[in-house]
C-alpha cells in the first residue's frame, strides 16, 4: 500500500547543478540548484528553475547565459556551501578556494576543478510561481580528460557526480551499473 505525502517537490534522482553567472560588476558567482535537467535533444537544452529572490536569477536575465558545473563527490562541502550563501554577500570562489574560468563561448564562468561543464545560452524563460524556469541551449560540453572513457566520452565512475535527496535533505553518491540502456529491457519486449 502506498502512503500519500501530498504535493511535494520529491523526485529521484535530483541533480546537484552548480550554476555559474557574472553579475553586473563582472564578479563571478555560482549557486547550487537541484531543480533541473535535460529538456530537449535537438537543439540540446537543459532547464533549471530558480527561486525569484536568488542573486543568480537576475544575473541570468541580464547576461542571457549560464554554465552548469557538475561537481564530483570530493567537492560536496563546497557545493553545499554554494547553496547556503548568497553571492551578493560573499565571494564564493574566494571563500571556497575553487577557481572560476571564463567561458570562451558564453558570458558566464564555470568551476575549473569540477569534471563536467555545460555552457548555455539562454533561450527560454517561464514564470512558474515561486520559481522561474530558464532553458539554456547547450553550446558546448567540456569534460576533464581524466574523467573520460576509452572513447573520450564522460565516464560517470570517474566523474563521481552526486545527487540531492529532497525528502531526507542529504547528498548521495551514484550506485552500481544496472545494465546497458536501451538494451536491458529487450528481454521483456515482444519480438
From TrEMBL:
InterPro entries per the UniProt record, alphabetical: Flavin_Rdtase-like_dom (IPR002563), Flavoredoxin (IPR052174), Split_barrel_FMN-bd (IPR012349)
Residues annotated as domain Flavin reductase like: 9-164
Domain of life assignment: Archaea
Keyword Oxidoreductase: no
Pfam families per UniProt: Flavin_Reduct
GO molecular function: FMN binding
Keywords (A to Z) from UniProt: Flavoprotein
Requisite cofactors: FMN
PANTHER family, sorted: FLAVOREDOXIN, FLAVOREDOXIN-RELATED-RELATED
Family to which this protein belongs: Belongs to the flavoredoxin family.
Protein known as: Flavin reductase family protein
Organism per entry: Methanobacterium spitsbergense
Amino acid at each position: 500500500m502506498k502512503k500519500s505525502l501530498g504535493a511535494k517537490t520529491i523526485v529521484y534522482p535530483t541533480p546537484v547543478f552548480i550554476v555559474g553567472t557574472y553579475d553586473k560588476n563582472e564578479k563571478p558567482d555560482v549557486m547550487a540548484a537541484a531543480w533541473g535537467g535535460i529538456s530537449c535533444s535537438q537543439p540540446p537544452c537543459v532547464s533549471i528553475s530558480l527561486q525569484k529572490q536568488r542573486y543568480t536569477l537576475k544575473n541570468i536575465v541580464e547576461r542571457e547565459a549560464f554554465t552548469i558545473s557538475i561537481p564530483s563527490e570530493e567537492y560536496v562541502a563546497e557545493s553545499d556551501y554554494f547553496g547556503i550563501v548568497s553571492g551578493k554577500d560573499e565571494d564564493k570562489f574566494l571563500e571556497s578556494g575553487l577557481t572560476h574560468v571564463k567561458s570562451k563561448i558564453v558570458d558566464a564562468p564555470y568551476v575549473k576543478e569540477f569534471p563536467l561543464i555545460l555552457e548555455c545560452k539562454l533561450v527560454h524563460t517561464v514564470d512558474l510561481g515561486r520559481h522561474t524556469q530558464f532553458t539554456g541551449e547547450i553550446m558546448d560540453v567540456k569534460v576533464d580528460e581524466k574523467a573520460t572513457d576509452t572513447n573520450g566520452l564522460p565516464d560517470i565512475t570517474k566523474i563521481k557526480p552526486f545527487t540531492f535527496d529532497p525528502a531526507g535533505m542529504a547528498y548521495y553518491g551514484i550506485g552500481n551499473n544496472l545494465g546497458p540502456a536501451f538494451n536491458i529491457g529487450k528481454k521483456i519486449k515482444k519480438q
